[in-house]
Specification:
By secondary structure, the chain is an all-alpha fold. It has eight helices and no strands. It is elongated.
Length: 230
Amino acid sequence: MAAHFEKHFKGSDLVTDIVIGMSDGLTVPFALAAGLSGAVHDTHIIVIAGLAEVAAGSIAMGLGGYLAGKTEIDHYNSEVKREVYEVENMPDKEKEEVREIFASMGISEATQHEIVEEMSKDKEKWVDFMMRYELGLEKPDAKRARNSALNIGVSYIVGGMVPLSPYFFTHLPSDGLKWSAVITVICLFIFGFFKAKATGQNPLGGAIRVMLIGSVAAATAFFIAHLFNN
């Protein structure tokens, strides 16, 4: 009998952070550089503005990741305190909730009582069970907030330097925009492809979707800037 292997994607926090940082890092500086290319005639200005945006964007995105991670940890800790209080002060009510959980799984009433009585002997495991199966909360990594800030911030910088890099080597904004568009669109396509593949979606569809979003944002910024400049 042939072995059976199941393939399931388990999205890690690192992958999530990279996707968040890279998505905005590739798109926002690209749109900014494209918009400036339609309004100014000096690549030096675009480079300075682009670097400032990448720096500010990475800090803002990193801070957002930190606050999100910190909020997740604080929320988990507050719920743990509440569950500890309920287990210690309302044990009968909590036992009934445990039995209801097992009943929903199709476990017999006799087995429910046996498991509940055994579980109630260890308050720490009891609380952990309630956190997981009543509230659906997993204990977050204590370093999650810091790591998220770093991962998102660095990913934003890496993504943001892609559309800006051509302007370092060209004198005319129009030339920089052409190379920036080519390089960034290719990177958006590749990024979208692997992002969709990692999350179990259609790789080609995901690649085209991400590429179109970035391209439309840049084109809109360019034409608006060009319109007002004229």
